Amino acid sequence: MPDKHFVIPRQDINREDFTSSIPDFNRRAEIMKTDMGYKCIVTNIVQLTKQEKLFKLRIIDPQERGIFRFKPGQFLMLELPGYGDVPISISSSNSNHEFIELCIRKAGHVTSALFTLGEGAHVAIRGPFGSAFPMDEMAGNNVLLIAGGLGFAPLRAPLFWINEHRERFLNVHVLYGVKEPSQQLFTYQFDEWEKISHITLHTIAEHAEEGWIGKTGMITDLFNDITIDPEHTYAIVCGPPVMFKIVCSYLDKLGIPMNRMFVSLERRMHCGMGKCCRCMVGSTFTCVDGPVFDYWSVINLKEAI
Amino acid sequence: MISMKYQGFTFEKLKIASFDFTCCEGCQLQLANRESSLLDFLELLDIRNFRELSTEKNNDYDIALIEGSLSREDEVERLQAIRRQAKTLIAFGTCACFGGVNSLKNKFPLQESVAEVYPGMQIDTMPVRKISDVVKVDLSIPGCPVNKEEVERIMVHLATGSLITLPNYPVCFECKAQLNTCMFELGEICLGPITRGGCNAVCTSGKTPCLGCRGPSEEINMPAFIELVTERKLSPDDLQEKMAFYNAFEEFCDHEA
Amino acid sequence: MKRDLTLDIRHLTRVEGHANISITVKDGKLLDARWAVVETPRFFEVMVKGMSAERVPFLTSRICGICSISHALASIRALERAMTIEPPDVAKQIRLLAMHGETLQSHALHLFFLVAPDFTGHGSVLPLITSHPDLIKAGLRLKELGNQISTVSAGRCTHPVSLVVGGVSKAPEKQQLLQLRTMIRESKPALDTACSFFRTLTIPEFKRETEFISLCNGSRYPSIGGDIISTDGVRRNENEYLLMTNEYSRDFSTSKFTRLSRESSVAGALARFNNNYDLLHPRAKEAAAAFALQPVCHNPFMNNIAQLIECVHILEDAEELINSLVDMELQEIKTPYAPKAGSATGAVEAPRGILYHHLETSDEGKVVRADCIIPTTQNNANIEYDLGAIAEQALQEGKNDREIEKLCEMAVRSYDPCISCSVH
Amino acid sequence: MIYKVIAKSEFKRFTDALLRDNTSFGPRQVDTDSRGTAVYQFLPVSSSDDVAFDYTATASSAKHFFLPFREELSRFTFNDQEWDQQITYEANPIVLIGLRACDISALNILDDVLLNGHFPSPYYLAKRKNTFVIGIDHLPLPDCFCKSMSHHTISTGFNVFCSDIGEDYYLSINSSKAFNFLKEFETRDPHDDDNCRLVERRKIISNSFLSEVDVTALPSILDIEFDSPVWEKWGNKCLNCGTCAMVCPTCYCYSVEESFDTDLKGASRQKKLYSCNLVDFAEVAGGHNFRPKNGDRLKYRYYHQHRGFAENANQQICVGCNRCGRACLAGINPKDVINDLRMEKESCLTNISSSPDRI
Ligand SMILES: Cc1cc2nc3c(=O)[nH]c(=O)nc-3n(C[C@H](O)[C@H](O)[C@H](O)COP(=O)(O)OP(=O)(O)OC[C@H]3O[C@@H](n4cnc5c(N)ncnc54)[C@H](O)[C@@H]3O)c2cc1C
Ligand code: SF4
Ligand code: SF4
Ligand code: SF4
């Protein structure tokens, strides 16, 4: 049969192939953007500490800006072409649809390159990815926000949320520990939060520096300053792994149910979509099932903390 | 001289110099290979001193590529002078990183060797040393010869201020991506499981065992490797000969002996 | 016109390895001309002692980064002859192809990167990238082709991986060979560009009669093995290499010197050309005619042209080799062997001339003694005599010091010396 | 599904036509190992003569036709102050001939993970849709344990699957493409005795398995045995080479690398298959490694393969081909490791008096 041909026709794939079956428009837009990313312009950069900067981004395309929505606790993959992309928690309010703020620590390859950027530079974001803090579920209760160091970055979004819905919460305490006072983030907003939003801030530093009049010690020392009503309290804990362990087991002893404590985990990530498997903890993806987990799930995840 | 502006980054050409010591100059030669991107590669560089390529010399360079090992006192002095000038000193190739094949001569008494090759002559020579025995090395690019693709990537990374890393997995990983039949299955000892990848398993792809020119991979499991050679009843002498070939497993060889 | 001249060039540039030129002329009379190789010796002949034969080619290839394939094959040939191993035909063809790739790559590197700047008046090839873009593209194309031929046939172009005692460890895929053939065909215009460029150059007029030595193996332009012949009529068997070289040391040079019938002799492209003109491919002969080059030519500067002619030959011959390889079964590529005691010489035509490895094995197949004689070594004496003669002639022609210095450098470069290789 | 019977000689004509007109890959012998066993790989083929129809199993799986060892995800081109991003999901059609039931099962599992999850992968889909899969059944090797994993038979995931029933192949046709091609060749509807021969063939295959791995309740055992000394024991043998994941038909973990082009006018984002056994798999900025020990990493491979991850509904993704076991120089293989774990578990169950808070 020499003259017959059996060439397999080529099938072209485009994004719509995937999304045709997904009616929810937001999901659809989200999937379409998982490889391409939203192009953003860096509109403002604030040096917060020696190691951290706050980047304010604006999605350039107004239509895309209209699509991008996230929940407090979610993260995105921030791409600087040529250097790579890194997972970063969103540090701004999710009701702000104009800008996205990211608090970034200079830690290595990509983050160092980001630090040399100036205003007007273009970056891309993919996402948002991951789970969020259950803000609605927390409503009607006291909230403890406990942050260590850079852990304040993922806490800022829920804090904004609480500010914006202050009437729905009882007492809100922020416990914030750092190694050195100069490492404190967002100090310029402390006043506003305390005075306007009636949030009680407790700060502590491990080592005092010149001019520090605040407390020195470990973050757990701050628990002496507050009374906790375990029946009606939710806690959000973000910080280095050791801190999770100490703080959460302390709260556990106080009687706060494990499923009312939330942590945000950090792992190595390359995709953000549960495909590269770099962020596995136990049998769970930090990027899809997390980064926000309740403490009950965490202690059930081997190697989580 | 600005070669490229991108988002507020300005990438300057790399002021580079290349020096060869005791070696075959095969690594320098690689700089002229990979012809398809050679002109772009040369665009990245502001070549200040490169005797093999150019008559012009200029001793104002930032990056020094050091090829070869040291086997004569005057080489040590020359190297120290280079170290004083260079901001980044790169050990370029296996000879520079580990001593390379040249180190095999260290097994023989020096004077006997001289008498054998240059009977009746005075020859200035000393036991072979690697570059880091004498000066601080900022970056190592192993390979006998170096893999031009890797060199190119590292130069791009230097120019763009990106992080420079070598693969930290063993050759086997890349060997499998080439769909090679494992040399051990063919009854040969291969140093792939303990050698740093990044060469695309070029030797095993040509069906010859890896001799470890790229040096030990990260956190190698030497006891398990020795056990595997023993279990398969392969020759321990062959293993020793292979591990000694580039002097890259010096620390492990002694440990075994 | 009587003149004085002192030339002292320390670490000649654009050559492989470290060497110095010094020339002293007083009252128009040559007092001294010296070609001193100051490269650090590595003692390969000592290192191989006790090493298993199968590993030795991998070690000796590291004698030289440019002609590593020749070194590997010289060792392999010596070992196969010492242990009486006959490699399969396919393997022999693959090896020839690998040699072609290396020679092409080496000649291209030499002609375009190292020699061309001399004629255009530049210090390096870099300015030529903008002044002669087509020439450089052609040069890169040929170099890339050379490297690709070696990579396909030997696994890697520098320090080959699949050339082993007994044959080859891996044969190229037919598909790769076919692609290579296409690449060869498509590279021919690049070679034409190169030839036209070199035809526009004025090659310095100079002549000093000398003896040209090369291999000769019957029906093929020499590459691997064969008798050793000279333009003075000497012909000897490979194993008698010592009688052909008569190696001796000079106290100022770490590279040795050799001689045969006269005070000096030459190996290399021009020697091969002078001795084996008849075996060149007709297209190569055509190209030679365009340069009015015919045997026996005694102008060392014409070595560059001989290299170019060889490139033409290589492209044609490599294509023919591939044509025959694609029709062969590529299964039997290695002859199994048992180690045994013996000793033999392996001679191959490296890009720069005859390369001898003489190896002796023990019963267990370990190498117990080695001797390597490198092409550049065989040219050292001739380089030195040429330098004196060139300086004298140039003085008579009334050239100034700078011009003479440049001419001397060019003369040395035309030999394409491979210095670190000669001090092994 | 449509069933047909085709004479082997006619099938050869069919494959000849297909392999001639398309870029095709099939099993070919590449070597004979030192024990005299033939070694096969999926390599380019252009006629049925190139295909080793009687092959046993390939050393490496067919995974890399769908998940290449290295793949460009996107490309950036820079202009004066800015950049553009380009992504293509293009794939050229290929024919893959000779896949075993477990190999096709592996593709179905990859489909599940990469297409049915929360974020489907277009890169994978493009390749999967453009691959024409011809499966062929076979008798298992002594160390195959795909039966234990229930992957020794297959009913989806291929275009056509051939069961060897003597002079003929019993074809299961699962795509209109395959059906249309086959129209041009001589086939017939199966008779009763063809069906009998098929049942018999399946029985023979099923009864030929020599290796068995008890996977009942394995996911929970893996959870319980998280701190078992078994991991350290096998971990101490592991060479951290990643070979197991490279040859595995379902290991899909990867790394992403981005680098500037040499001319600095653009950049490329590339994905590279990775292995959880490599030392830096779980290392984060600052150098902290969440899995610093060989045993931790090895455990994760087993965890992923045999416990499954939340994203794929906790199903096991190992198909039981034992490629990793065959390729591992350290002699680590699923059968031994899992049996070891079970023994651990059983010894602790029989020894009730030991520490009650162990679980
Ligand atoms: C869910 C999540 C939220 C995060 N939020 C923030 C934040 O708000 N602010 C902040 O400063 N940092 C945050 N990080 C950490 C941040 O992602 C790492 O510091 C960053 O990836 C380091 O990249 P690098 O290239 O600079 O470092 P290198 O050490 O050079 O890393 C090289 C590569 O390794 C990978 N990698 C290394 N460390 C990590 C890591 N910790 N997580 C993921 N991938 C890693 C990346 O692919 C990176 O490109 C977060 C991490 C996660 C997982
Ligand atoms: S041949 Fe060598 S590098 Fe390749 S898998 Fe085997 S041991 Fe590893
Ligand atoms: S396989 Fe081994 S010897 Fe060969 S290049 Fe790679 S590291 Fe070097
Ligand atoms: S289990 Fe075996 S194959 Fe896998 S990484 Fe360890 S040693 Fe390598």
Strand-helix topology:
The complex is a heterotetramer of chains A (305), B (257), C (424) and D (359).
Chain A: H1 15-19, H2 25-36, E1 38-47, E2 52-59, H3 62-67, E3 75-80, E4 84-89, E5 100-105, H4 109-115, E6 122-129, H5 135-138, E7 142-148, H6 152-164, E8 172-178, H7 187-195, E9 200-205, E10 215-216, E11 233-238, H8 241-254, E12 261-264, E13 280-281, E14 284-285, E15 292-294, H9 295-300
Parallel strand pairs in A: 7-8, 7-11, 8-9, 9-10, 11-12
Antiparallel strand pairs in A: 1-2, 1-6, 2-5, 3-4, 3-6, 12-15, 13-14
Chain B: E1 2-6, E2 9-12, E3 14-20, H1 26-31, H2 38-44, E4 45-50, E5 63-67, H3 73-85, E6 88-92, H4 94-98, H5 110-117, E7 139-141, H6 148-160, H7 171-177, H8 202-205, H9 222-231, H10 236-244, H11 250-256
Chain D: E1 2-7, H1 8-21, E2 23-32, E3 38-45, E4 70-78, E5 83-86, E6 94-99, H2 101-115, H3 122-129, E7 131-136, E8 160-164, E9 168-173, H4 176-183, E10 187-188, H5 192-207, H6 218-224, H7 229-235, H8 243-247, E11 254-260, E12 266-273, H9 294-307, H10 323-327, H11 334-350
Parallel strand pairs in D: 2-6, 6-7, 7-8
Antiparallel strand pairs in D: 1-9, 1-10, 2-3, 4-5, 4-12, 8-9, 11-12
Helix pairs in contact in D: 6-9, 7-9
The complex binds flavin-adenine dinucleotide and iron/sulfur cluster (SF4) (3 copies).
Tell me what the structure shows:
The complex is a heterotetramer of chains A (305), B (257), C (424) and D (359). Helices cover 25% and strands 27% of the residues of chain A. By secondary structure, chain A is α/β, with parallel strands linked by helices. In chain A, strand 11, helix 8 and strand 12 (261-264) form a beta-alpha-beta unit. Chain A starts with 14 loop residues before the first helix and ends in a 5-residue tail after the last helix. Chain B has 11 helices and 7 strands. Chain B has 257 residues and is α/β, with parallel strands linked by helices. In chain B, helix 3 links the parallel strand 5 (63-67) and strand 6 (88-92). In chain B, the strands form 2 sheets. Chain B has a 5-stranded parallel β-sheet, sandwiched between helices. In chain B, strands 1-2 form a two-stranded antiparallel sheet. The model of chain B has no long low-confidence stretch (mean pLDDT 90). Helix content of chain B is 35%, strand content 14%. With 424 residues, chain C is α+β, with helices and mostly antiparallel strands. In chain C, helix 6 (133-154) packs antiparallel against helix 7 and helix 7 runs antiparallel to helix 11 (303-326). Chain D is of the alpha+beta class and 359 residues long. Chain D folds into 2 domains: 2-71 and 89-207, no CATH class; 218-347, no CATH class. Chain D is built from 11 helices and 12 strands. An 8-stranded mixed β-sheet of chain D has the order 3-2-6-7-8-9-1-10, with helices on both faces. The N and C termini of chain D lie far apart (48 Å). The chains are: A alpha/beta (305), B alpha/beta (257), C alpha+beta (424), D alpha+beta (359). Bound molecules: flavin-adenine dinucleotide (FAD) and iron/sulfur cluster (3 copies). The site of one iron/sulfur cluster has 13 residues of chain D, from helix 8. The site of one iron/sulfur cluster has 13 residues of chain B, from helix 7.
